[in-house]
Specification:
- By secondary structure, this protein is an alpha+beta fold.
- The protein folds into two domains: about 80 residues, Arc Repressor Mutant, subunit A, CATH 1.10.10.10; about 170 residues, 2-Layer Sandwich (Beta-Lactamase).
- The chain contains ten helices and eight strands.
- The strands form two sheets. A six-stranded antiparallel beta sheet has the order 5-4-3-8-7-6, with helices on both faces.
- Helix 6 packs antiparallel against helix 10 and helix 7 crosses helix 9.
Length: about 260
């Protein structure tokens, strides 16, 4: 047996498929399926009904789901998972007062996001007004390639990560302005690295403008993106660059310094 085969066998042995499937059942609960039936969960996950039933009973005994009249729903206990994440990440605690100050200075929503797979995920947020059609909150995921936060995170990400995001599947044109050409996006990421910030106009949603700057850890690695979002009715790309980007860079530098990083 080769080294690669031994490593593959070792990896398969350590992989707990039942845990993976149980999490998949939890993730099947979403905005479109807040109270699915067992049959619906089976269809969404691709698992057999007996398997889904076993997972649901286990999750019910753990307090994460409840069943009623043939339908299932999540319980508030699932929120504790996110709370554990927040409690174990000092960056979120450090950034919160800075997000509040930025929101007060700009009169616009301020957010902090990290990269997870193909998406930028909101990990902290101070909303001022709702400017997107979706209800953005902590945990909301948006395509990294079409957002200022995602482009900041990708600009300093390792090459294999960027390759995966840009080439793993065809990039979808979310609006008429969405850049979907991988070569054009690579050029944009190089521009973001050079100037140190990103501005994206109406690529995620018509009328939405956003600017982002990188937040670093103590080693200098970019670990998050700080963002301010507005609409074309209240600002312009040029005004965002002149008025908001300097505030973003200052705030990101303060978060970096307090987090123990290197500005």
């Amino acid at each position: 047996m080769s080294v690669g085969e031994r490593e593959s066998t070792h990896g398969d042995r350590d992989h707990v498929q039942s845990l993976e499937r149980g999490i998949a059942v939890l993730l099947a609960f979403d905005e479109e399926h807040p109270e699915p039936t067992l049959a619906e969960l089976s269809r969404i996950t691709g698992f057999s009904r007996p398997a889904v039933r076993r997972f649901l009973i286990t999750l019910e005994r753990m307090g994460y789901v409840r069943g009623h009249d043939g339908r299932w729903s999540l319980t508030p206990r699932v929120l504790s998972i996110g709370q554990h994440y927040t409690a174990s990440h000092a960056l979120i605690e450090v950034s919160q007062p800075h997000l509040l100050r930025l929101a007060e200075e700009t009169h616009e929503s301020a957010s902090l996001a990290t990269l997870d797979g193909d998406d930028a995920v909101y990990v902290a947020r101070v909303p001022v007004r709702r400017i997107m059609s979706i209800n953005v909150s902590v945990g909301t995921r948006v395509p990294a390639y079409a957002t200022s936060m995602g482009r900041v995170l990708l600009a300093w990400a390792p090459t294999p990560v960027v390759d995966s995001v840009l080439h793993r599947r065809p990039l979808r044109a979310i609006t008429p302005s969405t850049v979907t050409d991988p070569s054009a996006l690579r050029a944009e990421l190089a521009r973001v690295r050079e100037q140190g910030w990103a501005v994206v106009a109406e690529e995620l949603e018509a009328g939405l403008l956003s600017a982002s700057a990188p937040v670093r850890d103590r080693s200098g690695q970019v670990v998050a993106a700080l963002a301010s979002s507005t609409s074309v009715g209240r600002s312009s790309r040029g005004e965002l660059q002149r008025r908001v980007v300097p505030l973003l860079l200052e705030t990101a530098a303060r978060i970096t310094a307090e987090f123990g990083g290197r500005a």
